[in-house]
Amino acid sequence: MKDIVLTPKQNEIINAFFNGDKLWIMSVGGKGSAKTTATLFILLRLMFDQEFSKSKILVARESLRDLKNTLIDEFIRLCTEKGIKLGIDYDENKQLQRIYSYVNQSEIFYLSLSDKNEQYKTVRSYEFNVVIIDELDRISYKAFEEASERLRYPHKFIRGIVNLNPVPQDHWIYEWFVKENGKFTPFTQIIKSSVYDNFVYVEVSKDFLEKADKYVFEDKVYYVVNNRRYEIVGEKGDKYIAKRFNPPHTYLAQMEHKPYYYRRVMLLGEWGNAYFEGNGIYTSYFSEENIYHDFNINSNLAFYYNFYAGIDFGFRRPAYVLLFEDELGRLVVIDELLGENEPVSIFLQNVAKRLKSNFGLTIHDVEWWGDVAGNQRDQYDGITLLKKIQDEFRLTIKTMRVPQFQSIEAIRDMLTTEIQGKKWLRVYQNCHITLNGLLGEFQIEDNGKLLKDGYYEHIHDALRYICYPLYRKTKHSNLVIKTPKY
Q1: CB of 85 closer than 8 Å to CB of 78
Q2: Residues spanned by CATH 3.40.50.300 within the chain?
Q3: How many CB atoms lie within 10 A of CB 233?
Q4: What residue spans in the chain does CATH classification 3.30.420.280 cover?
Q5: Are the CB atoms for 132 and 42 separated by under 8 Å?
Q6: Quick one: CATH architecture of 8-194?
Q7: CB 3.0-4.6 Å disulfide test: which of 31, 66, 269, 274 passes with 194?
Q8: 288-477 is classed in which CATH architecture?
Q9: Could you tell me the sign of the dihedral formed by the alpha carbons of 453, 456, 459, 464, in that order?
């Protein structure tokens, strides 16, 4: 194991697995971020370190063939190279196979967690103290639940680790492991990685630059030698300290020229959907220039910016987005919230707490816009929803009719228009639902109507309710009526 050179991110994963205080480690990253290599190191230690002797280890993936051709074959190859003898066996149906360590008597059981013929139910006869699942994003929640309930073999060390590519926010994995109230969230440490985290530090001579090809991407300068990419990060005497990236330069360059929605997920490792299908309303209008990175929270925000919020009154899933406007009239979406089976009054209480804790704002520091239908819904003993909100929160929510076509065109124009070198409408990098919506999840059905997906549609409506009136106000304020001179 000493000859395996690990990246800083792999060391972080391994340390969290063996020394952390969470039952589950979630390693989520793009394609080529070397998640599997960290898992391989973990397996080697579990099988040969006496501290973990007599462990029962489940290693699983959606496809048994893929599991054998990747993690298992590499594990057996390394053991063979080191002269370590293993015992290999399988059950009579060849559905669950076993590897036995003669060093510390630990055992690996590996199998498919495919839904096909409910193969995942094979684990029901076993108990494990370690569960390792590769490519969790390819299996169902039923399969994972079945495997996770087997994590109960009596042993002093009990731990689970799952590897996956990022998933959208409406995926079961995100809801179970990432959301604040997710069933596994309190027991999980999430470690995110990008393909750019797959590097090791090396020393190179100063004449290194003379024989290297220069490659520039997003204002960063890299040097390429023999299809290996290097990034100079410091000096040490007569040498440079450099990051040497493990993936080939040609692979990295190919990934860097994919569409941004794909790069954001599979290169940078951000939550989202890399495979949009359907009619993304804003996909071709949204670019990296629409992402806002630098937001500094201070107690004087209300003094420096105008704040606006759009709210959708969906009774099952109310939603809100918060925007600030700078001195040039440029807008940035800096917050979002999607409710879950809660009345609007409770939702607004949560929004008020969020505004106070995250931004030092009250709900009265914000100009609110919502659905005009809020004037028509007599849900509270003949009182409209807007009137109830006004009575309970002393908050006036402005409304206007927001036509579908015109509001979409307004947002498209705001995404592409520049004001002194910056896009008119940008989105803060942590507003993942809005980002993924603009990248492709906000869609139109074949009949021309907005897609009702029960999730992204609510954030989209909230965004339309605020952007359209602000767009109209700006356009009308720039309108100049010329009269003839006589």
Answers
A1: no
A2: 8-194
A3: 11
A4: 288-477
A5: yes
A6: 3-Layer(aba) Sandwich (3.40)
A7: 269
A8: 2-Layer Sandwich (3.30)
A9: negative
Residue 182 φ/ψ, nearest 5 degrees:
-65, 150
pLDDT at 357 over 70: yes
Structure tokens at 438: 């603009």
- Whether 200 and 5 have beta carbons less than 8 Å apart is answered as yes
Interval 293-345: pLDDT, tens: 877 766 566 667 899 999 999 878 999 999 999 999 999 999 999 998 888 88
User: Tokens for 141?
Assistant: 């929640």
Q: Model-level pTM?
A: 0.77
Report yes or no: 324 and 301 within 8 Å, Cβ to Cβ. Answer: yes
